[in-house]
Design brief:
With 609 residues, the protein is α/β, with parallel strands linked by helices. The chain folds into two domains: 37-301, Rossmann fold (3-Layer(aba) Sandwich); 333-406 and 460-588, no CATH class. It is built from 23 helices and ten strands. It has helices at 4-27, 37-51, 68-76, 107-113, 162-174, 190-201, 222-233, 247-251, 272-277, 281-296, 303-325, 339-352, 356-387, 398-424, 429-439, 442-457, 463-479, 481-507, 511-531, 535-540, 543-576, 578-588, 594-601; strands at residues 56-62, 94-98, 118-121, 136-142, 149-153, 177-182, 206-213, 239-244, 257-260, 266-270. A ten-stranded mixed beta sheet has the order 3-4-2-5-1-6-7-8-9-10, with helices on both faces. Helix 16 (442-457) crosses helix 21 (543-576). The longest helix has 34 residues, at 543-576. The protein starts with a helix and ends in an 8-residue tail after the last helix.
Amino acid sequence: MMEFSRLAQSVLELDRLLDQLRILAESCGVPTPEHENWYALLKHKLIPQLSEKEFLIVAVTGGTNTGKSLIFNHLVGESFSAVDHRASGTKHPVCLVPKRAGTTSFEPTLTRHFESFRLVSWSNAEQSLSVTKVHHLFWCEGQNVPDRLLLLDTPDVDSDHEINWERARAVRHAADVLIAVLTEQKYNDAAVRKFFREAAEADKPMIVLFNMFDLNNDTQHLPRWLEQFCEETGTKPLTVLVAPYNKELAEHLKLPFYELQKDGSFGEPVNLEKTLTELHFDAIKSQTLLGALKILDDPSTGVQSYLDTVQKSSARFAEALNILENASETEVNWPGLPTTVLAEEIRRWWNLGRPGWSQSINAVYRKVGDKILRPVRNIAGYISSHYFGAKHDSLNSLAEFYNKEHQAVVEFISRIIERLEKISETDNPVLRREILELIGGEHRAALFDRANTVLTSLEPVDNEFREILHKHLTEWSQKNPKIVAWIRSLDYIATAARPVITVTFAISGFALGAHVINLAIGDVAIAGGITAGGEAILHAGSENAQHSIAQLFQKIQEDYVLTRSKRFYAEFHKELWRNVLDRFRTGAGVAESEIFRQCRNWTVPEAVS
């Protein structure tokens, strides 16, 4: 026997957790499970019944033209439900409750058990025949309803109108006991079998009642009908009753109900109301609740199945989030820093290590040298291009560099879009909408436009990379002190010679050549020699030194590409992807939340003695 208080506490806790999880789950595209069988049982059966143990809800159910309303009227002793010989007569359930002393109303109780219905006070039998889209439950107090019973007549379970099925299923979820009204024509109907099979799967206690039964001709067929119905649905009836076809007795609510004996015979007529009141109340309650729990705990169709869906959807959001958060690691051919720019940055670093007098002289004479050498460089470029077939150094120009970066960005965004498009091929409407709002139509054009704007706003070298570069150069110089000392000695000689060169330039036509030579010994050895693998450095060291320099500049370019692409991405998504990322994080975090973990760890309490 299940300890009721322990069961109630566990199920109520699950309901509280699911109410919170439903809101989170909607953020990752999982709809509310309110139309799921397990959830309906939780809301309409377990929660109300665990908080109220005093009533048995008995519903008269069955297919079209089986006489359900007639049986219901016999049960309550009054004509509360209209008897309509047309198919699908009853459209809305009718509920009779026992009379209560004082002013206490049953309405709050009915609201908890039948929250999908709008409660309407019963006034006449024709109300249940009205055609409306709203689910109505017509109810009133019955003079003959036993104290511990709530009795219901229900719409047809095989109606031509699907809305009637929904109402019948909702009543079935809430009911403790079903009276399954069958006839020769309806005991093996597919829709009828399906309805009662689902009830049997939830261990719903049932009384099978064959109505409009021909006592003279059908008796020999009854065992076969009953056996086939029970095998097809899995029903284990509490008892089996038959009501004869007798129009006169039916109109006066005087139909007898015979109980089928184990030997196949019929005993004396039984009082249907008394049969219900004599049901073992606690046993019925326990069977009903444990049956509902079995459906709730089914790993393929219950709460765990819902949690599987939530986890899968949340993982898809995490996948999309991962693509955007790690977009800077997308494999794209980002260009390295142009040699001319890199050389200038190396000069900056080298100059920081010069004595003060050397820094001053070199700053002045670099400006002079640049002016002097500009026409020489232009002439040299022209001669190289036209007479020796050498290409001008355009690959290292900033214009060419920006052009390559633009191509890299186009490739970068295209790959991101391609990956997101694959994820958008999902049945998750929320994720699909989020992705399409990011990459669909005019949004896609906005991505490329924004990327272009961000790219042009970035300096070729920022302080972050400058610090990285200086760190690499400093570490390399510490590991190669002989090479650095040799370069520095050349630098001091060139720096000291520059004033003499300038005077010579003023009085000699050959000064230009001397100045170029001295600049080559100094700045070219310092910068050009390092960046281009100049002969001065390479001849000064061994093959190990050459290899060391090659590794140094490969690492510098790798770090530049990494730093540059990450900086671009950081600036890019700051303005355009921030809100999208927040929504993806929310969806991705559902399966990692404490609420989800607690729901996943919930289990049906073990039986206790």
